[in-house]
User: Fold this.
Amino acid sequence: MLGGPGLPHGADEDTPVFVISVAAQLSGLHAQTLRSYDRQGLVSPGRTSGGGRRYSMRDIALLREVQRLSQEDGVNLAGVKRIIELENQVDALRSRLAELTEELAAAYTAAQQATAAVHASYRKDLVPIRQQTALVVWKPKRRR
Assistant:
């Protein structure tokens, strides 16, 4: 969603663009709450070269989720942090699974192509013969 509503042109949901006062207003929280969540590692906004916090749309959504979990679901902030960590881990595992699935599909395709190349390399002038089994009895001549 490049240049979406409320975002500068070229920015996406991960671009840190909002100062803390705007992020507080967008999330419905007090700026001091945002600072507290940052200190506790619940939401880690980007930083300017001067150290000022800059929040992305993803950060705003995460702030809302932290608030929902703590206020509506009664989860303490340590529990909220663990939930966020686990969700991030699940996202990372899903991404890795997608990568491995693509690699496996590519390897399978390569194996099929290699098999086809081997079969194509067989000589066409060879004719298979029917194999039969015969028993031959050998009797050596006796030496006198």
Observations:
- The chain has a mean pLDDT of 90.
- The first strand starts at residue 46 and ends at 47.
- The CA atoms of residues 87 and 119 lie 48 Å apart.
